[in-house]
Amino acid sequence: MAYNEHPFLTDIKVTDPTPMPDNVPKVDEVGATSAPLKSASFFIGGFCKDYNEDFMLCKNENNDPAHCLKEGRKVTRCAIDLLKKLRENCDKQFEAHWQCLDKNNHEFYMCRPEEKIFNGCVLNALNLKKVIPGSPEGQTPINLKENPIYRPRPRT
Question: Is 32 left (phi over 0), alpha (psi -120 to 50) or beta?
Answer without folding.
Answer: beta
